[in-house]
Amino acid sequence: MKGILLPIEDHVLMDSVMETTLLLARQFGSTIEGAALGPNLAELVAADFSLSGVILDDRARRELFEASRRRFDAFMAGHQVPRHTDESTGLSCDWMGDTLVSDNGIGEYARVFDLVVVGLPGAGAGQPRRTTFEAALFESGRPVLIATKTPPPTLGETIVIAWNGNTDTARTIAFAMPLLLRAQDVIVISVPGLRLPGPPDEAVVRGLRRHGIKARTQTARAGQASSGHAILEAATELGADLLIKGGYTQSRLRQLIFGGVTSEILAETHLPVFMAH
User: Fold this and answer.
1) pTM for the full model?
2) In whole angstroms, what is the distance from residue 212 CA to residue 266 CA?
3) Following CA atoms 233, 158, 248, 174 in sequence, which dihedral angle do they give, to the nearest 10 degrees?
4) I need a surface site. Which of 68, 107, 215, 217 has the fewest CB within 10 A?
5) Strand order in the sheet with 242-246
6) CB 129 within 8 A of CB 103
7) pLDDT tens digit string along 193-238?
8) Which CATH topology does 3-147 take?
9) Of 238, 266, 220, whose CA–CA distance to 157 is shortest?
10) For residues 169 and 248, what is the distance between their CA atoms, to the nearest angstrom?
């Protein structure tokens, strides 16, 4: 995971997002490329961009861009992350362009990265927006790491895979192989009643063990809890510092109206989630 895209925006989780990104980047000697996230007029009409007023004039957009750039540069300088050069071979940082990038722009640009890191979406002003997360997830063709309110002390030492048998989860596991190969413990969990047609948990473990990954299975206790809650509860009991899950088995609209495992996890998770679609 040598290339990580980090959208920068003024929300309450931004410091945690940057800390989580750096924690991952140090493991792989990655280049973190920052990009100033901002509104696109066409997207504002249908999106949930939470700002005090609509930013349309060039001066305001320039100020927003410069604030994001300063925040990124200050963080990287404060953590002694060097600027990327043609000779860079280890941890470094870089910056994208000289103007704001929309959510869709982030989704498109992320196609040339190994990963994009966003904050856990929330409701209300000052929270990371779901439109950013969904653009990264659906438009990039790349995995997304969702950072939570508090950056974890470790990332990827104990990994839980929420396996339901479907192709999205299989694709997410493939994207996560660099992390799985470094993990000390990998647990493939399933929730009774959540499974779709596909290989059983034991087959997933056999496949991972072919790569030398220390993997095992466990069944989450559903009880009266929702499937998403059962997954998170099991991850907590197992001491996981990362959850791997496929994104949106059901359509986004259906999950929005009726709920679903992805929506439940986004609403309740306390640990970073690695997700792909």
Assistant:
1) 0.90
2) 31
3) -160
4) 217
5) 92-95, 31-36, 3-8, 115-119, 144-147, 273-276, 242-246, 158-162, 185-190, 215-219
6) yes
7) 666 778 999 999 999 999 999 999 998 876 656 788 889 999 999 9
8) Rossmann fold (3.40.50)
9) 238
10) 10
Dump pLDDT digits (tens) for 242-255.
999 998 755 554 44
The residue type at 171: R
Helices (H), the chain: 14-28, 41-44, 58-78, 103-109, 130-139, 167-175, 177-182, 201-209, 227-237, 252-258, 261-268
CA distance 237 to 216: 15
The residues that bridge with 4 in the sheet, in sequence order, are 32, 115
Give every residue of the chain whose pLDDT is below 50, as ranges. Answer: 43, 45-53, 253-259
Specify the pLDDT at position 251: 52
> Of 9, 127, 22, whose CA–CA distance to 68 is shortest?
9
Q: What's the CA dihedral at 246, 15, 112, 168 to 10 degrees?
A: 0
**Backbone torsions φ then ψ of 139, nearest 5 degrees:** -100, -20
Identical fold, 3-147 and 158-276:
yes
23, 84 contact by CB (below 8 A)? no
CATH number, span 158-276:
3.40.50.620
pLDDT of residue 197: 78
Amino acid identity for residue 89 in this structure:
T
Contact 213, 182 (CB under 8 A): no
In the chain, domain spans: 3-147, 158-276
Per the CB < 8 A criterion, the answer to whether 150 and 269 are in contact is no
**Structure token digits, residue 75:** 């963080």
